[in-house]
## 1
Amino acid sequence: MFLFAEGGHHTPLIVEFINHYLGEPVLRFQLAYTYPAWQWLFDKLGVKNTPEAVFGEYTAENAIPWYTIMFVIACILTMVAIWIFKGKLSGDDPKPGQLTLEAGFLALKDLITSVVGEHGYRYFPVVATFAVLVLISNLMGIFPLFMSPTASVNVTLALGISSFVYYNYVGIHENGLINHLAHFAGPKLPLLMAIIITPLIFGIELVSSLIRPITLGVRLFANMFADEQISSQISGLAPPFTQFLLPVVLMPLAVFVAFVQTLVFTLLSMIYISEVSHAPHEHTHGGVRLFANMFADEQISSQISGLAPPFTQFLLPVVLMPLAVFVAFVQTLVFTLLSMIYISEVSHAPHEHTHGGEHSEVTGEAIATAPV
């Protein structure tokens, strides 16, 4: 939110300082190794562009991008913050920092057990790391000389891919590769229905899973980038007053946005883990599947419509509407079909018992009336 840099541009001084001393050796490494590698890849793909046209000019001033520096600082601050809050652990006389850390621990533990189940506590370390790291990254933009690394799509996509890789690792580790892929096909169906519906469900579930890193990354980036831009524009309206007074008023809103976006990212990661962590009880996750797919559809439409308004707010939604209708019908079909299958698993039990009772009653009457 506060960016005190020379010349009034938006490069934090700490980024300029690090590039001043480390930019030259990093630039030489890039020109010697990464630049030729990108050029070779572009040539192989038939892309008639140079790395400069894609990534920007190679200079010592931007050799280490600001978001890389800020993300490394966020990782360091995460470890420092936990160490400070932890302090000297005491069961008899806990300090305020320890109480704060315990409250966050219990809140996150209750959330993951309610979403994933009691067995979800085994995933707590990774999920908690995501939560603390994203929260620290979001809050960094509030302080002078810093920017939120999550205001860069490169960082948020990396976080989204990390979540994607982890929950797929959980699914493969617990269920095996074949069963993990099989859960995309939905429940077992009669042969005729399986030929028609199973490939359709598999394709939709696979595409829905593959776009999750994008939806996670773009959602977090769009909200944090918008927060940074709004704060930057407002602080430049009537300097120096708006550089000190208005940001103080907006700071509670920025903190609220940081916590909400952390909750959304962490909660969605938990939901994705819950879908693959208990394949034998997949029917408990029917509501989660429906929510995840429809929520992703809503978020994709929202993010696309905001790319270049007003054109993308009117033209693209018309193009995307048939796809949205198709997804709505397919998800309705999947949910209804699963409900029917689950009912069929238990609906024969009373019937069978009735038949058994009737059979016993008839047999008893026949024996009683039979001639001796």
## 2
Amino acid sequence: MGLVGALAIFAISSGDWAVLGACLALAAATVVFIFYIQPDASDLAPHRTKLDQLLERRDTIYENLRDLRFEYRSGKYSEGDFEAMKTALENDAALVLAEIEQVTESQVRRPRPAVANRSAGSVYLFLRRWPLRKRARCTAR
């Protein structure tokens, strides 16, 4: 029973080969995914809304205006060049500010939820009408 018994222990049925092959394929796919597939830069960057982009553009324009004024005062630009660049930057700023206003106006403003019960609404109205100095005195205790 020596050699035949040893081979019988290591004999794998056809169903076991299929399971072993599936496990090896899954392991290989995992290794490839982890080590060889590179994520896009857009996957790693946080999502920026249109308003965020416009606010960043506004800040950049304001910074450029400050730099332009500094460089003009230091004598780097002539008055004509300074006025032309300043006018262009101010026009860009006006366009960006108009877009910011459009975006903020188009955002849906949600109405305040209705008060669930009357007693909570009554307390709110009472506190709202109560003079501020009395509220401050009561909370200071």
## 3
Amino acid sequence: MTVMVCTKCGLADDSPKPMRCTKCGGRDFYASTPSAFAPKKKTVPTTDEAIAVSVANIESSPTSPTVTLFDKYGGVPTISKIVRAFHKEIMQRAHLAAYFEGIDLVVLAEHTVKYIAFVMGKPAEVYTGRDMYTAHAKYHIHGMHFDEVTDVLKDILMHSGVENADIEIIMRRVESLREMIVV
């Protein structure tokens, strides 16, 4: 079963074509297949319309599962290496490192790995951190610093062997968070 996931906050929505995210109000969604280890939801269609939507979803789903970017690049071990290199580069830039004063960098790395895994196609259940607005609001992040951080991430992805087309997909998802992170 395909679930639509908000690109801003990661909230999963079971409706086939959600208009707005109920959590953050975002309008951009992408299709995700829930993890085999996620808890199963029991739903009972109550109308003929619900049954018709279920049949349409089954008929439109591909017969073979698609490989996510998460799987393509080796999952958590690869993402962990990318995040370590990313944080190392960020912390070498004093004006960016200032945003991380007083933050437990181990916890930050764990959340970053989970979020990048989510961005690369791992089901939303993996990322359970605070929504992006709540996590970043008190830091008053400037647009130029957001741009610099995204440039660093893009460079790290390129040096890690991620293909250009895949980098563009990842960067579009990260860019969709701009309004929730920048002052």
## 4
Amino acid sequence: MNIFLVFLILGVIFLGYKKINSKKTKNLKLDKFKNKLQSTQTNIDRIFLREEEKTFSNPNINIYIGVYDNEENINRKSNIHRARLSKFKKSKLNGEMIFQDDEQRIYKFNDGKKVYL
């Protein structure tokens, strides 16, 4: 009988200890991933990343650099423009198609004539 009570008490202590430890997060990386996945800012960043990738892959999409754009946006847009020039040899910037020849010179067409910039 005494042995039964000892095992019963040890079993209760073990279950209580197990219950307390199960409330602690076992996998911090998994919790961090879940929180990041559900974050609103992450979803917004993902949308901008897709839009930027679409712009980068198509040189016919216009990149508009406005007067009121901040420096970070201007740098990002100009880097996309330069990358498209290097990859496709053409890029549309502020409504004008700009080209790059084999000698790395930049030009645009004005009334059917090449105008080097």
